[in-house]
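Records of this kind hold a single protein each, on a pair of labelled lines. Below, a sample record shows both lines together.
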Amino acid sequence: MKHVLTIAGSDTCGGAGIQADLKTFSAQGTYGMSVITAVTVQNTQGVFGCQDISPDIIQGQMDAIFSDIRVDAVKIGMVSQIETIHAIADKLEQYQPPNVAVDPVMISKSGFDLMKPEAKEALLTRLIPLAYVVTPNLPEAEVITGMKINDTASMEEAARAIHKMGAKNILVKGGHLEDSATDILFDGKEMTFLTSERIHTKNTHGTGCTLSSAIAANLAKGQTVSDAVKNAKAYITIAIQHSLEIGKGVGPTHHFYELYQKAGILEETEKP
């Protein structure tokens, strides 16, 4: 079994962050491990507070994993402070794990700043150059590049700009486009357009975390970046199609729908 490590923040209600990452790793048939960077106060209605974990504890968690267990891929999510980013980057440079997927989490759906603005430069200079794949949505790609992105042409331009920062592969997610749901994968040479149906549901909590985690798990299993992304998109599409009506706000996706379906343990209301 392949081992995948998430370095990210904790989500109280379990739909995003390390909770979503660990569920995704399990759903992909890999063994999940975690390094917690922050503890958030959140539910389906929003993020109401955050306490960052100290850099020495973050590095201690990483040492504990890397000194004992083989790591086949790493997913990096919420890293809100400059000190946090430098602490993680130092350990990644020390241990040199393969298949690092960076999901540049910056702002929650409710508008809470999950990355302090002053940490942007550290993200660009320390983490992105270490990434095998970076998975920004359009608002995140705009912050990273300083560009306005409103169509596939500007998405391509953003992907090239992020590649120049050192990332080997860039998946610019187009879910925020008004006229299509097209993602663009750039490997430094070729642009691959990945178009999927737009699913009309409010329950999309944790979709970015889940997609990047599925990509990391697929890379750990030896898939090419193209196959890893395509299979991750297929997984998240089903998870969104069968998303869960939990809480009063934006509900989570169903990380285990396919497994529950095969096991015959879906409730009647969940069956297609």
